[in-house]
Amino acid sequence: MRTKRIDLIEEFILSEHSVSLDTLCEKFKVSKNTVRRDIDELVQKGTIKKVYGGVVSNGPEASQGLLPYEQRNTSLPEEKDAISRLAASFVKDGDIIFIDTGTTCLPMVDHLHDRTCTILTNSLQVCVKAIPYATLQVITLPGTLKRETLSFVGNDIGEYLKTFNIQKAFMASTGVSIENGLTNASMEEYYVKKAVIQNSSTRFLLSDRTKFGRFSLMTYCNLTDVQHIITDQRPPAEYEDFCQENTIALHIAK
Question: How many CB atoms lie within 10 A of CB 242?
Fold first, then answer.
């Protein structure tokens, strides 16, 4: 339990970049003495450092937290393109779909060039990528631009999404695990993703092999809330068994 709390504290610090001790105590419902002991372990690990009144991250590269978009976009490009190509094959003319902000989802737009459909998204990159394709109607969610993810976030997005009938949602996550489900390191992104899950009929998880067995700060849905998982390699055996037991279709992109 303590190890899991320390992992979550680390994810929170790395996603926020700087956090006060009071915030950590309130967020994780523990005393300052407990937080200080947990922080000491993270300082020894090298991912954070102490400052007056709180802590700051030593850089995102040591964690499973929220990396800047540019860094995430350079990871496994061929695998992500293959995953997106397979995901796009499930989209039919006339569909109303949601495309998430993850870099695994972004290449989908190019593979939808011959389709006539409506795309809802909070991703600035998805909007820009769709500009050359006249048959793709794009509806962007309202909000404030979050530069780390190049996405629009805000408290009103949940209510806004209720006005649409999303047939298929194509989602990304920072980590995927049987116990913790689909997780994300950004609190603002968490609210958007959770609202999409609640307001969509069929959900696809697009995830490369590095995400399995990992978890991040916040769970936006259980693994059983998705009907399809698209990845680049067969996941560990326990995930295949879990998918079979819970009628989740597992698709391997070549």
Answer: 17
For residue 73, pLDDT beyond 60: no
> Residue 165: what pLDDT?
94
pLDDT of residue 63: 39
Q: What's the pLDDT tens digit per position in 20-37?
A: 787 888 888 899 899 989
Conformational region of residue 235, where left means phi above 0, alpha means psi within -120 to 50, and beta covers everything else: beta
The 10s digit of each residue's pLDDT in 89-110 is 999 999 999 999 989 999 999 9
Which parts of the chain are beta strand (E)? Answer: 18-20, 48-51, 54-57, 96-99, 117-121, 136-140, 144-146, 151-153, 166-171, 175-177, 181-184, 200-206, 218-221, 228-231, 249-252
Place of tokens 């993703």: 193
Rounded to 5°, the CA angle 231-60-11 comes to 75
